[in-house]
Amino acid sequence: MRLRLFRRYTILSPTWTGSLCISSILFIVVAAWFNYGETYLAITNRAPADILVVEGWIGRNGIRAAVDEFERGHYRYIVATGGLTSGGWEDKSASYAEMAAEEMMRLDVPKERIVVATSENTESHRTFASAVSVWRTLRDAGIKPESLNVFTLGPHASRSALVFAKVNSPGPKIGVIGWLPPEYKTEAWWNSSDRSRELLEETVAYFYELLFNSGRRSNSALM
């Protein structure tokens, strides 16, 4: 009896024509994402909501734009969310949610219409932590919305909408508003190193969230 360590298999491999077709498809996909990826991620799809959730890390200009949306949309409440800063706004660490709420009051939003939902301090799953914090804060306040809109920075919008929808399932309908700073509308993303890095990170993060829940074991807000 002969001792055999290997077996022969027949495998399929593409022909030159097949390789050319595959390469062409990949090229078209990459080229399309290069041109329209930022636009795809920066979606705006409003729901008929009376609650506006604002991710506080978007900065003062973003908060001003959110307050404009709050006033135009005749929302009942505006929810400021976010965890601890890394010094992006101020010299010391503070809560994005609280800082956003202070900015809203400075812009003449009545205090009784502002809900502060400070999320847990975490190095990962920060959008998920914000969505959970909003869910719990509204529940504890006895506020039961049928739908709500999430206001965030443009390229982050698709991921925010996806995460908030998972956390709130099967609860309120989730709309999203992808706010774009003025400079996003006047020049292409590839002219800015910050936006290039942002698009790459958000592309990877969006598909990781879409396919694998960003590695989370559960989307439940009751964890």
Structure description:
With 223 residues, the protein is α/β, with parallel strands linked by helices. It contains 6 helices and 6 strands. It has a 6-stranded mixed beta sheet, sandwiched between helices. Strand 2 (51-55), helix 2 and strand 3 (77-82) form a beta-alpha-beta unit. Helix 5 packs parallel to helix 6. The longest helix has 26 residues, at 16-41.
How many distinct beta strands? 6
Overall pLDDT level: 90
**Considering DSSP H and I runs of 4 or more, what fraction of the residues is helical?**
40-55%
Query: Radius of gyration over alpha carbons?
Result: 22 Å
Label the structural class. Answer: alpha/beta
Low-confidence stretches: none
Measured by DSSP, the beta-strand proportion falls in: 5-15%
Question: Distance N terminus to C terminus?
Answer: 60 Å
Instruction: Name the helix and strand elements from N-terminus to C-terminus, one letter apiece.
Output: HEEHEHEHEHEH
Question: Widest sheet: strand order?
Answer: 1-6-5-2-3-4
Count of individual helical segments: 6
Question: Could you outline the blueprint of secondary structure elements for this entry?
Answer:
Layout: H1 16-41, E1 44-45, E2 51-55, H2 59-72, E3 77-82, H3 96-106, E4 114-118, H4 126-140, E5 147-153, H5 157-168, E6 173-179, H6 193-212
Parallel strand pairs: 2-3, 2-5, 3-4, 5-6
Antiparallel strand pairs: 1-6
Helix pairs in contact: 4-5, 5-6
